[in-house]
Amino acid sequence: MAGWAIPEMVKPSTPSIDALFDGVRSSDRAMIGRAITLVESRNPEHQARAQELLHCLLPFAGQSQRVGISGVPGVGKSTFIENLGTMLTGSGQKVAVLAVDPSSGRTGGSILGDKTRMDSLSADLNAFIRPSPSAGVLGGVARATRETIVVLEAAGFDTVLVETVGTGQSETMVADMVDFFLVLMLPGAGDELQGIKKGILELADMVAVNKADVFEQKLKQAVNGYKSALHIMSDASPNWHPPVVTCAGLTGQGVKELWDRIEKHRRLMTENGERATRRENQRLTWLATHLQDRLMDEFYSDTAVKAALEDVRADLRGGSTTVSTGVTRLLKAFHESKRD
Protein backbone atom coordinates (compact mmCIF):
# COMPACT_ATOMS: atom_id res chain seq x y z
CA MET A 1 0.00 0.00 0.00
CA ALA A 2 1.36 3.42 -0.95
CA GLY A 3 2.72 5.47 1.87
CA TRP A 4 3.26 2.44 4.13
CA ALA A 5 6.65 0.88 4.77
CA ILE A 6 7.03 -2.66 6.01
CA PRO A 7 8.96 -2.44 9.29
CA GLU A 8 12.23 -4.28 9.45
CA MET A 9 12.40 -7.19 11.89
CA VAL A 10 14.72 -6.14 14.69
CA LYS A 11 16.36 -8.75 16.87
CA PRO A 12 16.14 -8.10 20.60
CA SER A 13 19.31 -6.41 21.76
CA THR A 14 21.70 -8.45 23.87
CA PRO A 15 22.02 -6.90 27.33
CA SER A 16 25.39 -5.43 28.22
CA ILE A 17 27.47 -6.89 31.02
CA ASP A 18 26.57 -3.87 33.16
CA ALA A 19 22.86 -4.38 32.48
CA LEU A 20 23.09 -8.09 33.33
CA PHE A 21 25.04 -7.31 36.50
CA ASP A 22 22.50 -4.71 37.64
CA GLY A 23 19.64 -7.03 36.77
CA VAL A 24 21.07 -9.97 38.72
CA ARG A 25 21.92 -7.82 41.74
CA SER A 26 18.41 -6.35 41.79
CA SER A 27 16.88 -9.86 41.56
CA ASP A 28 15.25 -9.18 38.18
CA ARG A 29 14.01 -12.65 37.27
CA ALA A 30 14.18 -12.07 33.50
CA MET A 31 17.76 -10.80 33.73
CA ILE A 32 18.75 -13.67 36.02
CA GLY A 33 17.43 -16.05 33.38
CA ARG A 34 19.36 -14.29 30.61
CA ALA A 35 22.54 -14.32 32.68
CA ILE A 36 22.20 -18.08 33.26
CA THR A 37 21.52 -18.63 29.55
CA LEU A 38 24.75 -16.78 28.80
CA VAL A 39 26.65 -18.92 31.31
CA GLU A 40 25.21 -22.14 29.83
CA SER A 41 26.08 -21.24 26.24
CA ARG A 42 28.90 -23.16 24.58
CA ASN A 43 29.50 -20.34 22.08
CA PRO A 44 33.10 -19.12 22.63
CA GLU A 45 32.04 -15.45 22.40
CA HIS A 46 29.26 -16.03 24.92
CA GLN A 47 31.61 -17.91 27.24
CA ALA A 48 34.02 -14.96 27.24
CA ARG A 49 31.18 -12.57 28.13
CA ALA A 50 29.92 -14.99 30.79
CA GLN A 51 33.33 -15.05 32.46
CA GLU A 52 33.41 -11.25 32.49
CA LEU A 53 30.00 -11.20 34.16
CA LEU A 54 30.98 -13.88 36.69
CA HIS A 55 34.08 -11.91 37.71
CA CYS A 56 31.82 -8.96 38.49
CA LEU A 57 29.35 -11.11 40.45
CA LEU A 58 31.88 -13.22 42.36
CA PRO A 59 32.39 -10.75 45.27
CA PHE A 60 28.65 -10.94 45.97
CA ALA A 61 28.41 -14.75 45.90
CA GLY A 62 29.14 -17.47 48.44
CA GLN A 63 26.59 -16.70 51.15
CA SER A 64 23.94 -19.29 50.35
CA GLN A 65 23.40 -22.76 51.73
CA ARG A 66 24.04 -25.16 48.83
CA VAL A 67 22.22 -28.48 49.12
CA GLY A 68 22.49 -31.34 46.64
CA ILE A 69 19.53 -33.72 46.49
CA SER A 70 19.84 -37.11 44.83
CA GLY A 71 17.79 -40.25 44.60
CA VAL A 72 16.63 -42.85 42.10
CA PRO A 73 13.77 -41.98 39.70
CA GLY A 74 10.44 -42.42 41.46
CA VAL A 75 11.76 -41.59 44.91
CA GLY A 76 9.79 -38.33 44.88
CA LYS A 77 12.55 -35.71 44.53
CA SER A 78 10.40 -33.08 42.82
CA THR A 79 7.54 -33.40 45.31
CA PHE A 80 9.98 -33.30 48.21
CA ILE A 81 11.78 -30.24 46.82
CA GLU A 82 8.51 -28.39 46.25
CA ASN A 83 7.45 -29.04 49.85
CA LEU A 84 10.86 -28.09 51.24
CA GLY A 85 11.14 -25.00 49.03
CA THR A 86 7.65 -23.79 49.93
CA MET A 87 8.42 -24.25 53.62
CA LEU A 88 11.62 -22.20 53.27
CA THR A 89 10.00 -19.37 51.30
CA GLY A 90 7.23 -19.34 53.89
CA SER A 91 9.87 -18.61 56.53
CA GLY A 92 11.17 -15.64 54.53
CA GLN A 93 13.95 -17.26 52.53
CA LYS A 94 14.64 -16.90 48.82
CA VAL A 95 15.10 -20.34 47.28
CA ALA A 96 16.58 -21.35 43.93
CA VAL A 97 16.24 -24.83 42.44
CA LEU A 98 18.58 -26.15 39.77
CA ALA A 99 16.74 -29.14 38.36
CA VAL A 100 19.13 -30.99 36.08
CA ASP A 101 17.20 -33.22 33.68
CA PRO A 102 18.58 -36.31 31.96
CA SER A 103 19.60 -35.70 28.37
CA SER A 104 19.14 -38.28 25.69
CA GLY A 105 22.37 -40.08 24.91
CA ARG A 106 21.32 -40.29 21.24
CA THR A 107 19.75 -36.90 20.56
CA GLY A 108 20.94 -34.72 23.41
CA GLY A 109 17.33 -33.77 24.09
CA SER A 110 15.85 -33.55 27.58
CA ILE A 111 12.41 -33.45 29.11
CA LEU A 112 12.89 -30.34 31.26
CA GLY A 113 9.73 -31.16 33.15
CA ASP A 114 10.66 -30.21 36.71
CA LYS A 115 9.05 -26.79 36.46
CA THR A 116 5.71 -28.38 35.60
CA ARG A 117 6.07 -30.84 38.49
CA MET A 118 6.53 -28.00 41.01
CA ASP A 119 3.39 -25.93 40.41
CA SER A 120 3.26 -24.12 43.75
CA LEU A 121 6.96 -23.37 43.92
CA SER A 122 7.00 -22.18 40.29
CA ALA A 123 4.40 -19.55 41.17
CA ASP A 124 6.21 -18.44 44.33
CA LEU A 125 7.81 -15.00 43.89
CA ASN A 126 10.55 -15.94 46.37
CA ALA A 127 11.53 -19.04 44.40
CA PHE A 128 13.37 -19.49 41.11
CA ILE A 129 13.42 -22.82 39.28
CA ARG A 130 15.87 -23.41 36.48
CA PRO A 131 15.59 -26.70 34.58
CA SER A 132 18.65 -27.36 32.44
CA PRO A 133 19.76 -30.39 30.42
CA SER A 134 22.70 -32.41 31.67
CA ALA A 135 24.03 -32.82 28.12
CA GLY A 136 25.46 -36.22 28.97
CA VAL A 137 27.76 -35.01 31.74
CA LEU A 138 28.56 -37.70 34.29
CA GLY A 139 26.20 -37.61 37.25
CA GLY A 140 23.63 -35.55 35.37
CA VAL A 141 25.24 -32.27 36.39
CA ALA A 142 25.30 -29.59 33.71
CA ARG A 143 28.71 -28.12 32.92
CA ALA A 144 27.61 -24.65 33.89
CA THR A 145 25.88 -25.56 37.17
CA ARG A 146 28.73 -24.27 39.31
CA GLU A 147 28.71 -20.89 37.57
CA THR A 148 24.92 -20.75 37.72
CA ILE A 149 25.18 -21.06 41.50
CA VAL A 150 27.39 -17.94 41.51
CA VAL A 151 24.72 -16.02 39.57
CA LEU A 152 21.95 -17.13 41.93
CA GLU A 153 23.94 -16.30 45.05
CA ALA A 154 24.78 -12.85 43.71
CA ALA A 155 21.04 -12.40 43.08
CA GLY A 156 20.44 -12.88 46.80
CA PHE A 157 19.10 -16.42 47.04
CA ASP A 158 19.57 -17.83 50.55
CA THR A 159 19.32 -21.50 49.60
CA VAL A 160 20.29 -23.22 46.34
CA LEU A 161 18.92 -26.73 45.87
CA VAL A 162 20.59 -28.84 43.16
CA GLU A 163 18.50 -31.82 42.08
CA THR A 164 20.51 -34.50 40.31
CA VAL A 165 19.30 -37.16 37.90
CA GLY A 166 20.01 -40.07 40.22
CA THR A 167 20.05 -42.75 37.55
CA GLY A 168 22.99 -44.71 38.94
CA GLN A 169 25.70 -42.44 37.49
CA SER A 170 28.39 -41.05 39.74
CA GLU A 171 27.09 -38.23 41.96
CA THR A 172 30.58 -37.13 42.96
CA MET A 173 30.32 -33.99 40.84
CA VAL A 174 27.33 -32.62 42.72
CA ALA A 175 28.86 -33.46 46.09
CA ASP A 176 31.85 -31.37 44.99
CA MET A 177 29.76 -28.23 44.57
CA VAL A 178 27.43 -28.24 47.58
CA ASP A 179 27.70 -27.81 51.35
CA PHE A 180 25.32 -30.66 52.11
CA PHE A 181 24.51 -33.79 50.11
CA LEU A 182 21.12 -35.36 50.81
CA VAL A 183 20.23 -38.81 49.45
CA LEU A 184 16.55 -39.70 49.24
CA MET A 185 15.65 -43.38 49.51
CA LEU A 186 12.49 -45.44 49.47
CA PRO A 187 11.46 -47.94 52.14
CA GLY A 188 12.24 -51.57 51.39
CA ALA A 189 15.88 -51.45 52.45
CA GLY A 190 16.39 -55.18 52.13
CA ASP A 191 16.08 -55.21 48.36
CA GLU A 192 17.23 -51.64 47.87
CA LEU A 193 20.55 -52.02 49.65
CA GLN A 194 21.50 -54.69 47.16
CA GLY A 195 21.35 -52.16 44.34
CA ILE A 196 22.90 -49.17 46.12
CA LYS A 197 26.38 -48.19 45.12
CA LYS A 198 28.59 -47.87 48.14
CA GLY A 199 29.93 -44.63 46.68
CA ILE A 200 26.68 -42.68 46.92
CA LEU A 201 26.27 -43.50 50.61
CA GLU A 202 29.86 -42.45 51.24
CA LEU A 203 28.99 -39.06 49.78
CA ALA A 204 25.80 -38.63 51.82
CA ASP A 205 25.62 -36.12 54.67
CA MET A 206 22.14 -37.48 55.38
CA VAL A 207 19.90 -40.28 54.14
CA ALA A 208 16.17 -39.53 54.14
CA VAL A 209 13.67 -42.35 53.69
CA ASN A 210 10.89 -40.67 51.70
CA LYS A 211 7.18 -41.56 51.31
CA ALA A 212 6.98 -42.46 54.98
CA ASP A 213 3.22 -41.88 54.80
CA VAL A 214 2.80 -44.69 52.25
CA PHE A 215 5.21 -47.32 53.53
CA GLU A 216 4.77 -47.01 57.31
CA GLN A 217 5.27 -50.70 58.05
CA LYS A 218 8.57 -50.86 56.17
CA LEU A 219 10.08 -47.72 57.72
CA LYS A 220 11.80 -49.32 60.71
CA GLN A 221 13.45 -51.99 58.58
CA ALA A 222 14.56 -49.39 56.04
CA VAL A 223 16.01 -47.01 58.63
CA ASN A 224 17.90 -49.82 60.38
CA GLY A 225 19.21 -51.09 57.05
CA TYR A 226 20.59 -47.71 55.99
CA LYS A 227 22.01 -47.03 59.44
CA SER A 228 23.87 -50.34 59.34
CA ALA A 229 25.24 -49.56 55.88
CA LEU A 230 26.46 -46.13 57.02
CA HIS A 231 27.91 -47.53 60.24
CA ILE A 232 30.49 -49.66 58.43
CA MET A 233 31.68 -46.71 56.30
CA SER A 234 34.17 -44.07 57.29
CA ASP A 235 32.60 -40.68 57.97
CA ALA A 236 33.79 -37.84 55.74
CA SER A 237 33.98 -35.58 58.79
CA PRO A 238 35.16 -36.45 62.31
CA ASN A 239 32.45 -34.08 63.57
CA TRP A 240 29.44 -35.44 61.68
CA HIS A 241 27.95 -38.90 61.29
CA PRO A 242 25.27 -38.98 58.54
CA PRO A 243 21.86 -39.48 60.17
CA VAL A 244 19.02 -41.50 58.69
CA VAL A 245 15.65 -39.74 58.91
CA THR A 246 12.14 -40.31 57.59
CA CYS A 247 9.94 -37.86 55.72
CA ALA A 248 6.97 -37.57 53.39
CA GLY A 249 7.43 -35.04 50.63
CA LEU A 250 3.74 -35.14 49.70
CA THR A 251 2.39 -34.27 53.17
CA GLY A 252 5.40 -32.43 54.60
CA GLN A 253 5.81 -34.94 57.42
CA GLY A 254 9.35 -34.69 58.83
CA VAL A 255 10.50 -32.06 56.32
CA LYS A 256 11.00 -29.29 58.91
CA GLU A 257 12.93 -31.65 61.20
CA LEU A 258 15.07 -32.70 58.24
CA TRP A 259 15.90 -29.06 57.45
CA ASP A 260 16.73 -28.41 61.12
CA ARG A 261 19.38 -31.12 60.83
CA ILE A 262 20.82 -29.47 57.73
CA GLU A 263 20.98 -26.15 59.59
CA LYS A 264 22.67 -27.89 62.53
CA HIS A 265 25.27 -29.26 60.09
CA ARG A 266 25.83 -25.75 58.71
CA ARG A 267 26.38 -24.24 62.18
CA LEU A 268 28.72 -27.04 63.23
CA MET A 269 30.80 -26.99 60.06
CA THR A 270 31.01 -23.18 60.07
CA GLU A 271 32.21 -23.11 63.68
CA ASN A 272 34.94 -25.72 63.18
CA GLY A 273 36.08 -24.34 59.82
CA GLU A 274 35.18 -27.45 57.79
CA ARG A 275 32.65 -25.59 55.67
CA ALA A 276 35.25 -23.09 54.45
CA THR A 277 37.79 -25.86 53.85
CA ARG A 278 35.24 -27.90 51.90
CA ARG A 279 34.52 -24.94 49.61
CA GLU A 280 38.23 -24.29 49.08
CA ASN A 281 38.74 -27.92 48.03
CA GLN A 282 35.68 -27.69 45.76
CA ARG A 283 37.20 -24.72 43.93
CA LEU A 284 40.36 -26.74 43.28
CA THR A 285 38.25 -29.65 42.00
CA TRP A 286 36.35 -27.18 39.83
CA LEU A 287 39.66 -26.00 38.36
CA ALA A 288 40.73 -29.55 37.44
CA THR A 289 37.31 -30.43 35.97
CA HIS A 290 36.99 -27.24 33.97
CA LEU A 291 40.54 -27.54 32.67
CA GLN A 292 39.82 -31.09 31.52
CA ASP A 293 36.64 -29.93 29.73
CA ARG A 294 38.43 -27.07 27.99
CA LEU A 295 41.30 -29.30 26.87
CA MET A 296 38.88 -31.88 25.47
CA ASP A 297 36.95 -29.17 23.61
CA GLU A 298 40.16 -27.79 22.12
CA PHE A 299 41.39 -31.26 21.20
CA TYR A 300 38.24 -32.41 19.37
CA SER A 301 37.72 -29.07 17.62
CA ASP A 302 41.25 -29.19 16.12
CA THR A 303 41.12 -29.63 12.33
CA ALA A 304 44.09 -32.02 12.20
CA VAL A 305 42.56 -34.19 14.95
CA LYS A 306 39.23 -34.35 13.11
CA ALA A 307 40.98 -35.58 9.96
CA ALA A 308 43.15 -38.11 11.82
CA LEU A 309 40.17 -39.33 13.86
CA GLU A 310 38.38 -40.60 10.76
CA ASP A 311 41.43 -42.65 9.74
CA VAL A 312 41.94 -44.01 13.26
CA ARG A 313 38.30 -45.06 13.52
CA ALA A 314 38.47 -46.78 10.14
CA ASP A 315 41.59 -48.70 11.18
CA LEU A 316 40.03 -49.70 14.50
CA ARG A 317 36.89 -50.96 12.78
CA GLY A 318 39.04 -52.95 10.39
CA GLY A 319 41.17 -54.36 13.19
CA SER A 320 44.43 -53.09 11.69
CA THR A 321 45.56 -51.04 14.71
CA THR A 322 45.27 -50.94 18.48
CA VAL A 323 43.48 -48.34 20.59
CA SER A 324 46.76 -47.28 22.19
CA THR A 325 48.35 -46.70 18.80
CA GLY A 326 45.28 -44.77 17.69
CA VAL A 327 45.53 -42.47 20.70
CA THR A 328 49.23 -41.88 19.98
CA ARG A 329 48.42 -40.92 16.38
CA LEU A 330 45.73 -38.47 17.50
CA LEU A 331 47.97 -36.81 20.08
CA LYS A 332 50.77 -36.54 17.50
CA ALA A 333 48.38 -34.86 15.05
CA PHE A 334 47.27 -32.43 17.77
CA HIS A 335 50.81 -31.50 18.85
CA GLU A 336 52.00 -31.04 15.27
CA SER A 337 48.98 -28.86 14.53
CA LYS A 338 49.86 -26.60 17.44
CA ARG A 339 53.47 -26.30 16.33
CA ASP A 340 52.52 -25.18 12.81
What do these coordinates show?
The protein has 340 residues and is of the alpha/beta class. The protein contains 15 helices and 7 strands. It has helices at residues 17-25, 29-40, 44-57, 77-90, 114-117, 119-122, 145-154, 172-175, 189-195, 198-203, 219-231, 255-271, 274-301, 303-318, 323-339; strands at 65-70, 95-101, 127-133, 159-163, 180-185, 206-209, 244-246. Strands 3-2-4-1-5-6-7 form a 7-stranded parallel sheet, sandwiched between helices. 35% of the residues are buried.
User: What does the largest sheet look like?
Assistant: 7 strands, parallel
Pattern of helices and strands: HHHEHEHHEHEHEHHEHEHHHH
Strand order of the largest sheet: 3-2-4-1-5-6-7
Q: In one word, what is the shape?
A: globular
Q: In percent, how much strand structure appears in the residues?
A: 5-15%
Structure classification:
alpha/beta
What number is the mean pLDDT? Answer: 85
Topology:
Elements: H1 17-25, H2 29-40, H3 44-57, E1 65-70, H4 77-90, E2 95-101, H5 114-117, H6 119-122, E3 127-133, H7 145-154, E4 159-163, H8 172-175, E5 180-185, H9 189-195, H10 198-203, E6 206-209, H11 219-231, E7 244-246, H12 255-271, H13 274-301, H14 303-318, H15 323-339
Parallel strand pairs: 1-4, 1-5, 2-3, 2-4, 5-6, 6-7
Helix pairs in contact: 1-2, 1-3, 2-3, 2-7, 14-15
